[in-house]
Write a structure and sequence with these properties.
The chain is 32% helix and 20% strand. Helix 1 links the parallel strand 1 (8-13) and strand 2 (36-40). The protein has one domain (8-193): Rossmann fold. The strands form 2 sheets. The protein has a 7-stranded parallel β-sheet, with helices on both faces. The chain is α/β, with parallel strands linked by helices. The protein has helices spanning 17-24, 50-55, 108-119, 136-144, 161-170, 178-187, 190-198; strands at residues 8-13, 36-40, 61-64, 75-78, 84-87, 93-96, 123-127, 148-152, 174-176.
Length: 199
């Protein structure tokens, strides 16, 4: 378990990742105090219903990220289709239409690398199933900055290229099956644990 107080969580995935998030995010309890920013590779030019799908299953608020909004505790932010999602040094979100990275916009690397610069060792990151290498470089940046890194175990992934790339490049702190990722993230929230102990 990390000894750092985690102030933000970032997560990303591609093929098969929505199903994994649908089992991981509902594990986070009401009162969970850490904001979560998520990039999923989705088709550009089509409206996204991800926020509604996940909100129906989660105890936390789920919304599409908006440019310049500050991260709020206990909220899950989803990158809108066809926009990169970044976290700025003041812990606000920003949206970008810069060129795709690994043929993807939004790109997991873009989110992870900006979050590493904004939070350093106070960041946790999760990289899930996917069919390209997006996210591996960003996960390595988070690891180098002292953050906590988790990769879905490749044998449980619908498409293992993404977790395999992360294992080669980032040497993550944990390699977990989907059913263990949610409880691991829930235990990162020392503030809500302190509230329970005080009550």
């Amino acid at each position: 378990m990390t000894g750092h107080n985690i102030e933000a969580i970032v997560a990303g995935g591609s093929a098969g990742a929505l199903g994994v998030l649908g089992s991981v995010l509902p594990v986070l309890p009401a009162g969970f105090s850490i904001p979560v920013a998520v990039v999923l590779h989705v088709l550009p030019g089509k409206p996204s219903y991800l926020a509604g799908v996940l909100a129906a299953r989660c105890s936390l608020a789920v919304k599409e990220a908006e440019d310049k909004e500050l991260l709020t505790p206990g909220t899950i932010y989803l990158a809108p289709p066809n926009y990169h999602l970044l976290i700025e040094k003041d812990h606000s979100l920003s949206l970008s239409v810069d060129e795709p990275v690994h043929y993807s916009r939004p790109s997991i690397d873009v989110l992870f690398e900006s979050a590493a610069d904004a939070y350093g060792e106070a960041l946790a990151a999760v990289l899930l199933t996917g069919a390209n290498k997006d996210g591996a470089r960003g996960l390595a940046r988070i690891k180098a900055a002292g953050g906590t890194t988790v990769v879905q175990s490749p044998e449980t992934a619908l498409m293992r290229m993404m977790p395999d790339a992360a294992l080669r490049l980032a040497q993550p702190d944990r390699v977990l099956p989907p059913e263990e990722i949610g409880s691991f993230l829930a235990r990162l929230d020392h503030r809500s644990a302190e509230k329970v102990e005080a009550s």
